[in-house]
Amino acid sequence: MPTSVAALLPGTGSDETFIREVFAGPLAAVGVRLIAPAPPRGADLVRGSLAALDEIAAGADGPILVGGVSFGAHVAAAWAVRENSRCAGLMAALPAWNGEPGSAPASLAAKLSADLVAANGLEPALAASVDGVPRWLADELTRAWRGHGDALAGGLRAAAGYPAPTLADLAKVDVPAGIATCVDDPIHPTKVAYDWAGALPRAAVVETTLTALGEDRESLGRATVLALLRSIRQSDETA
Predict the structure, then answer these.
(1) Domain ranges of the chain
(2) Half-sphere exposure of 152 (CA within 13 A, CB side)
(3) Residue 153: what pLDDT?
(4) Average pLDDT of 100-112?
(5) Fewer Cβ atoms within 10 Å of its own Cβ: the N or the C terminal residue of the chain?
(6) pLDDT of 151 strictly over 80
(7) Quick one: DSSP state of residue 39?
(8) The pTM is what?
(9) Three-class SS state of 66
(10) Cα separations (Å) of 81 from 49, 59, 237?
(11) What gap in Å lies between CA 117 and CA 125, rounded to an integer?
């Protein structure tokens, strides 16, 4: 690995607990220590997330891996565009769009959830949102949404409206990049993952499934780490 530290951010409405469940084990297996900052609250979500990456990078001995899940991957990629010299690699699990969100399913879902919370309150919105979803997802949402508390709707809206890096922006991130996609996830289309990989100069994609994630949280982390390792190997072979 090009570094021993990875700073990874959670997705919309998620939390650092999920990041640790997904990535801590797979990263430790390749000698990398995970730093998973808690998501900032409400409308401060984007600025605070970028500031957290700045702080982690400032305290590191050299460039760091950055990444995350969905919205967290978007913020990390934007940081990598801005701070390419401080970035050792990018780990993007389930990127949801590039450029402006427009009608991206993940953006629309976050806006609908924010409206539901604002109109009905956290607990009724949570009850409606977990009705009929797999048990593992209901458990994750319950813990994370209650952790966000009354700042949840503001955070959901901030994430839903945040522009991800454009494909032209991603072309500037000349570091190894590992991208994971769940092929059975309509909210995070697999096409977006391959669009990101096509734009990034040094990237690989590994496919997994939401079904696997439900049974084993580390399955998504392993897919992302494996994609990063493949990107590094491909870079070495062409050097």
Answers:
(1) 5-100+164-238, 105-157
(2) 28
(3) 96
(4) 97
(5) C
(6) yes
(7) P
(8) 0.95
(9) strand
(10) 15, 20, 24
(11) 5
